[in-house]
Design a protein that fits this description.
This is Glycosyltransferase family 2 protein. By secondary structure, the chain is of the alpha/beta class. It is 44% helix and 18% strand. It is globular.
């Protein structure tokens, strides 16, 4: 019996990218077939992202377009993860809808899935700007100081996750967390969950504007530090006999 894959892509104001991103990722899901889906979640875009998604759905049978009120990237991911679990997906793959990632690199993840619970990309030769590379390095230090673990690339939007293992960790992630992938990556490293880190390319944004700027990064970072402390306490309580 074929395994079911849900590819989760959050989308916010991605009108300029959405058609090319669907064209690139739909064949991945189509190849696996069955009840697999390319699930794109419009996070309350102010442009015509969602209407374009609906039109694309007429041409791409494995595409499912959903829209919801704007709540931010992290909450949208949690929404998608929970929906995939409700649909009994066996594996969940998450990437973003801005064209940074390469679908051709997915196959190496899929071929190794039975040996690991998580397969996460490590971004090499990043082309998304020096400020974001700097933020990733600072985040790595913050996680080391807070949780005592070194995470190679905690926030990579290129990850294949075993559904049963994902279910165990969702409850430890705050519902309002903007950095849900970061929390997940950190906790699985701390618990020594079987994980494979695979180098990936990370291209420039294909089109459109990035909705995250230095001001928003700073705001997110300050909240994250507070959240990490609370998450650590919750995690430690969950481990007590």
């Amino acid at each position: 019996m074929p395994q079911t894959l849900y590819i989760i892509l959050p989308a916010y104001n991605e009108s300029a990218n959405i058609e090319s991103v669907v064209a690139q990722w739909h064949p991945v899901v189509e190849k696996i077939g069955g009840n697999s889906r390319l699930l794109i979640i419009d996070d309350g875009s102010k442009d015509d992202t969602y209407s374009k998604m609906l039109e694309l759905g007429k041409r791409y049978p494995y595409l499912e377009a959903i829209t919801k009120p704007n709540s931010g990237h992290g909450r949208t991911l949690l929404f998608g993860y929970n929906l995939a679990l409700e649909r009994n997906a066996d594996w969940i793959f998450q990437t973003d809808s801005d064209g940074h990632t390469d679908p051709n690199e997915f196959q190496a993840f899929w071929e190794n899935r039975n040996e690991y619970d998580f397969l996460i990309g490590v971004r090499n030769n990043r082309q998304d700007g020096s400020s974001r590379v700097f933020v990733t390095k600072v985040l790595k230090l913050v996680l080391l100081a807070t949780f005592g673990v070194s995470v190679p690339d905690a926030n990579t939007p290129f990850r294949l996750i075993n559904a049963a293992t994902l279910r165990k960790y969702l409850g430890l992630i705050p519902a309002d967390s903007f950095l849900s992938n970061v929390v997940m990556s950190t906790l699985i490293v701390k618990d020594k969950v079987p994980v494979k880190w695979i180098p990936i390319t990370f291209k420039p944004r294909q089109a459109g504007k990035n909705s995250i700027n230095l001001k928003s990064i700073t705001k997110i970072g300050l909240k994250a530090i507070r959240d990490f402390r609370q998450i650590k306490k919750s995690y430690e309580r969950s481990k007590r006999p």
